[in-house]
Amino acid sequence: MKISPTLIVLLAVVLSVGSAGAMLWLNYDAIFKPKPVIKAEFTSVEFDADDTSYSPAETHSMNQLSKELTALKERLLERENELDARESAISMDLESLEKQKKELKQIREDLASRLADFEARQGQDLSEEQLKEYKDTSKRWIEMGPEVASVEIQNWRQKRRFEEALTIFELLKAEEKAPIIAFMLNSDEDSLIELADALAMRDRGLLPSVEAENIANPLQN
User: Fold this and answer.
1) Does residue 99 belong to any structural domain of this protein?
2) Are residues 55 and 91 in the same domain?
3) pTM of the entire predicted model
4) Which of 92, 121, 150 is the C-terminal boundary of a domain?
5) Hey, what's the torsion of the CAs at 11, 17, 20, 21, to 10 degrees?
6) N or C terminus: which one in the chain shows less Cβ crowding within 10 Å?
7) Do residues 60 and 113 share a domain?
8) Which DSSP string corresponds to 131-183?
9) Helix 162-170 and helix 128-144: axis angle, to 10°?
């Protein structure tokens, strides 16, 4: 029995079309449906080359970056601790400074009070020998006259003994001081005029309201 070649060709075509249709039906999803995009998710910053599609070089770079970020975080924490400690130290310094300012203010007040007491007691705490010497000097000033007394007081001041001269001057009576002050104020020397002002300011026995003209009257007489 002879089979026609046309039948053989037709049978081959049918088998081919059937096989192609079967393959197309089996792989329909893979061929015609788009593949979903899968995002890479990492549970940590450590990358494993076996779990990702990154190359070893990329994984190494990411691991290196992770280490640098961790080191930076540690440095920032250390810096924060340092700043906190410095802030605490500054607060303590401010409190100490305020305390020192209060103590300094108290010291100044005590010093001013003691200085006032010292000036008030000046001439009262002298020994008998010193008091006798000062009285003799004041008596000599009166006997020598206002001109010599003024020059001597000025010399004492130049020798940095003005406090002693002031103590002696305070031993004089008001009518005995007036000629000396008047001579100084009527002098042509600025140093003597300045000395008269200093004596008038320091000697509480002289009234600050007394003017030079009123003081000069005993000298003119």
Assistant:
1) yes
2) yes
3) 0.36
4) 121
5) -120
6) N
7) yes
8) HHHHHHHHHHHHHH-HHHHHHHHHHHHHTT-HHHHHHHHHTS-HHHHHHHHHH
9) 80
Indicate whether 134 and 212 sit together in one domain. yes
Query: What is the total count of domains within the chain?
Result: 2
Q: Which two tokens stand for residue 98?
A: 């305020």
Mean pLDDT by 10 residues, the chain (221 residues): 72 80 75 64 50 70 87 90 88 85 82 69 64 85 86 84 82 84 85 82 53 43 43
DSSP letter at 2 equals P
User: Contact, 195 vs 157, CB < 8 A?
Assistant: yes
Cβ atoms 156, 165 nearer than 8 A = yes
d(C-alpha 206, C-alpha 178), whole Å: 9
Burial status of residue 7 (CB atoms within 10 A of its CB: 0-12, 13-18, 19 or more): exposed
Given a contact cutoff of 8 angstroms between Cβ atoms, the answer to whether 62 and 54 are in contact is yes
Last residue of a domain, one of 121, 143, 158: 121
Instruction: Give the SS3 label for residue 22.
Output: helix
In a domain, 65, yes or no: yes
